[in-house]
Design goal:
elongated
Length: 417
Amino acid sequence: MPVDVRSGESPRKLSCIPVEIFLGRSLCLALLALVSGCAGARPVAKGPSSARGATAIAVPRTVITPENTASIPELYQQALALGSSGEHARAALELQRIHDLDPEGELADDALFQSASEHDLAGALDSAALGYQQLARRYPKSELVGSALVRATRLLMRLDQWPRAGELSDLALSGSRELGPLEHITVYAAAALARLEQGDEHAALTFIEKGRAVIDQYQLDAAGRLPLELAPLYFSLGELRRRRAERIVFEPLPPNFADALERRCQLLLDAHSAYSDAMRAYDVHFSAIAGYRVGELYERLHQDVMRITPPASADTEEKRVLFEAAMRLRYAVLLEKAQKFMEHTLGWVERNGERSPWVEKTHEAIADIRAAVRREEAALAALPYPRATVEAALLDLQRRTEEKKKLEALPGSRPRR
């Protein structure tokens, strides 16, 4: 969670800055007479201010309004107090105002960073990400840039802006500040997701493996709940495996259907495992996407196998009907798995306040799967054969598949259709 990075640190020395007054002209002139020691002066540089080596007196900038008179540091502390009391939205606006009042002051980068942090705590993720990026752009030499880039990367991933998150992750990795283990995992995940969006699976795998190496080094994936930062990395691994699985299709029928189906199913299970690891971090947003993807894995496999045309051996209408019925009966379980997993995930993420577009997409997918289940049931009910006959045909199909695999495993055998 965002924290006050200034807590526990010594206050910075402020440069001498003239008093700024937002009142009428007459009151302004009167007040200038009272503070003639600094009034009307330009900001002075640090170090000797004259030939005699006199040192400038550090005077905090003061803001005067009809309601209040306070220095920039006082306003800054008041804004932090708002955040500490839970008024994050108000604190964010006040800190942004402090930055805007004194954008070249000693606390300018701090105020902007803390404003973004309070937006983050208030749930205004777009504003928070924008603030962190603004800090990195306006104050490139600030010691806060590294943290700002990592935080912006994390938020952009949650906002599904993966290409932009990848750009910031590259900046964070090329920066001078050494990143911590969880920060490294965050930027590696963003880099991987961005490369997947670009279709560069090799580069994506490189970043995923770098992140997993950090996980292994610090033993971050022990049994139980995982750190939140691991969710997008494991999700990116699931995405990589999903893409590889869905490239294996069955129309036209591959030379060795059983082998192709086995490879597709293994990649499906591997992707499911990675998505499940992402959900172990209890990150609501990535759990919502992962749950949707798992259901999609099973639903698409069902769609692909049901497109398979009857084999040449099904040379009569009766055999073709029995083949289609056996396929429906055999693979109906894929729709059941898809529906149950999506429903379970949807219930959890909605109870935990997730409101992203992925929730609506999951509702729509569940409705489509339920409709598909009803169509399958209706098709089976309309068959001119009793269910026992279809089940017998299914058993015969399974027996033939197993025998074919055994024959192809013999030395010198050739794959047959």
